[in-house]
From TrEMBL, chain A:
The lineage of its organism: Bacteria, Pseudomonadati, Pseudomonadota, Betaproteobacteria, Rhodocyclales. Residues 20-115 form the MaoC-like domain. InterPro entries: HotDog_dom_sf, MaoC-like_dom. It comes from Parazoarcus communis SWub3 = DSM 12120. This is Acyl dehydratase. CDD domains: SAV4209.
C-alpha cells in the first residue's frame, strides 16, 4: 500500500503541495489501461491504426488519464478520502517512451463540508497532458 | 459568417435527451481488480474485502474514475448491452463526420459523484446533448466542440438512483495536417521537444564555450577596462575593438523579471520565470530563474548562477537561483 494513513481535514491547508508522481508511459500501459477501461478504439492499442489517424504512436485514452489522476490524488489523500468530483482537461497526448509527472496542490478547503479541492497537472515532454481539479471529503 | 445549412440539423438536436445505455456487466470485483492493477491503484477500499467491510459502504466499491467504463460498449462499436436505446447519443458526431470533420479527440471529462457504487449494482446512463460550439480552429484543425452530459443511474427495485454525472466534451475536427499514411513498419516518430539552441556567432562564441565549461564570462575592453554584455565587437565607451574576458562571480541581484504564463511552451517550466540579473561586476544579463516560489520573486533579491544541462547534455544554460542576502 502506498498509504494506509489517510489525510485528515484538520491537517490540510490551502497551498499544501502533493508529492509528485512520475508515471512512465509505455505501449503496454496505454493498451492495457484502454482495455481495462473497456475502450477498444484502435488508436489506443494498434500503432498502425494510430498512424493512419495521423498520430505518431498509440496514445493514452481519457479514461486512463482519469484513473491515473485518481491514483495521484488518493495516493496523497489515503483510503478514507471520498471523491466528490474529478474534472480533467486534456492537452498534449501521452505517447510511449514519455514520462508524465503529476504535481498538485490544495487550492480550497471548506470546514463545514470537510471538502478539499486539489488542482492537479500531469506534464510530459510536450507540455501539459492533463490539468484538472478533484474535490475530496476528508475524515 | 453564416453557418452551413446542414449545421441547422445539428443545432436542432442541442438539448435533446437520449435514452438508456446499459452496462454489459454489473459492478464486479474482477473488473475492479484489473483496473486497479493496470492503473497502479492500491487503495484497499476497492481491493480488500475485509478493509472495505469496515467502511461506511460495508463492502468493496468501485473506484470513482471507473464510472464511465462500466457502460462502454466494448470491442464492437455501437454494440450496446440488451435493453439499451436504439438511438445513437453520438449522432451529431456522425453528422459532423459526414460533412468533412472526420477526427475526434476527447478534451474534457468532468466526473461528479453522488455516491460510490457497490458490487452487484447494475448501471445505465442517459445522455443530453448539451452544447455544440461555434466552428473553431485549434492547433489540431478546424471543427466543433461537442459537449454531452451523461447521467449515471443504478437500477433499484424501489426506484433507480442517480450515482453520478459526466460532462464529456470532444473536439470533432478536420485535421490541419492531413495525416500522411505511414509506411508499414516505419519507426514511430514521437515528437521530442527540445530547448532552442542559442545562435552562436564569432562575437558570442566565448560566452557559450564558457557556459559549457561552467564559467560565466563577461567581455572586457582591454583598452579602457569597461565590461559589456551582451557581447559586441566594439567597446561601448572607447570604441576599441580589443577585448578579453573576465570570469564573473555569478552573484548578483534581480534587477527585473517576468513570469511567462501564456502560452505554455514545452519543455520550459510553466509558469516560466525569467530574470534580468544585475551581476555584482556591473553588467546585466537575461536568464531563467530556478527555485523561485510563485509570488515570492522580488526585485533586489540576491541570486547566484548555476549551470544546468538540458536535452541529454546537448545544451548548458546559466540559470539563477535566489540565495540569502
Amino acid at each position: 500500500m502506498t498509504s494506509k494513513n489517510s489525510k485528515r481535514f484538520d491537517d490540510v491547508r490551502p497551498g499544501e503541495a502533493l508529492p509528485e508522481l512520475a508515471i512512465p508511459i509505455t505501449t503496454t500501459l496505454i493498451a492495457s489501461a484502454a482495455i481495462a477501461t473497456r475502450d477498444y478504439f484502435p488508436g489506443h492499442h494498434d500503432m498502425e491504426a494510430a498512424q493512419q489517424l495521423g498520430s505518431p504512436h498509440v496514445f493514452m485514452n481519457i479514461l486512463t488519464t482519469s484513473g491515473l489522476s485518481q491514483r495521484f490524488v488518493e495516493g496523497w489523500a489515503g483510503p478514507a478520502a471520498r471523491f466528490k468530483d474529478l474534472k480533467i482537461k486534456l492537452g498534449a497526448p501521452n505517447y510511449p517512451g514519455d514520462t508524465m509527472t503529476f504535481s498538485g496542490e490544495v487550492v480550497r478547503t471548506d470546514a463545514a463540508s470537510r471538502e478539499v479541492e486539489i488542482a492537479l497537472k500531469g506534464k510530459n515532454s510536450m507540455g501539459s497532458h492533463v490539468t484538472g481539479t478533484a474535490t475530496l471529503v476528508l475524515p | 459568417m453564416a453557418e452551413q445549412e446542414w449545421m441547422s440539423e445539428v443545432r436542432a438536436k442541442v438539448g435533446r435527451e437520449y435514452g438508456r445505455v446499459y452496462a454489459w456487466d454489473e459492478v464486479n470485483a474482477p473488473m475492479i481488480r484489473q483496473w486497479c492493477e493496470v492503473m497502479g491503484v492500491d487503495n484497499p477500499l476497492y481491493l480488500d474485502a475485509d478493509h472495505a467491510a469496515t467502511t461506511e459502504f460495508g463492502g468493496i466499491v468501485a473506484p470513482p474514475a471507473m464510472l464511465q467504463a462500466w457502460c462502454l460498449e466494448g470491442l464492437h462499436m455501437n454494440n450496446y448491452a440488451p435493453g439499451s436505446t436504439d438511438e445513437n447519443p453520438y449522432e451529431v458526431l456522425k453528422t459532423l463526420e459526414a460533412h468533412g470533420y472526420p477526427s475526434v479527440v476527447a478534451v474534457n471529462s468532468d466526473l461528479s459523484f453522488e455516491r460510490y457504487v457497490k458490487l452487484g449494482e447494475k448501471l445505465y446512463y442517459t445522455t443530453r446533448l448539451d452544447a455544440v460550439g461555434e466552428e473553431k480552429t485549434t492547433a489540431l484543425g478546424t471543427g466543433y466542440f461537442v459537449t454531452l452530459i451523461m447521467s449515471f443511474f443504478s437500477q433499484k427495485p424501489e426506484g433507480d438512483e442517480k450515482v453520478g454525472q459526466l460532462l464529456f466534451r470532444v473536439f470533432k475536427f478536420r485535421p490541419a495536417n492531413v495525416p500522411k499514411p505511414v509506411e508499414k513498419g516505419a519507426a514511430p516518430a514521437v515528437p521530442k521537444f527540445k530547448r532552442p539552441k542559442p545562435g552562436i556567432s564569432d562575437d558570442t562564441r566565448f560566452f557559450w564555450e564558457g557556459v559549457d565549461a561552467g564559467k560565466l564570462l563577461i567581455q572586457r575592453c582591454t583598452c579602457c577596462g569597461t565590461l559589456r554584455h551582451p557581447p559586441a565587437p566594439v567597446c561601448i565607451k572607447c570604441h576599441s575593438f580589443d577585448w578579453d574576458t573576465v570570469e564573473a562571480s555569478g552573484k548578483g541581484q534581480l534587477y527585473s523579471f517576468v513570469v511567462m504564463h501564456y502560452p505554455e511552451v514545452p519543455p520550459f517550466e510553466h509558469p516560466n520565470p525569467i530574470g534580468l540579473i544585475e551581476l555584482d561586476e556591473g553588467v546585466r544579463l537575461i536568464a531563467g530563474l530556478v527555485g523561485v516560489k510563485r509570488g515570492e520573486i522580488r526585485i533586489g533579491q540576491r541570486v547566484q548562477v548555476e549551470f544546468q544541462s538540458f536535452d541529454d547534455g546537448e545544451l548548458t544554460l546559466p540559470m539563477f537561483r535566489p540565495v540569502a542576502a
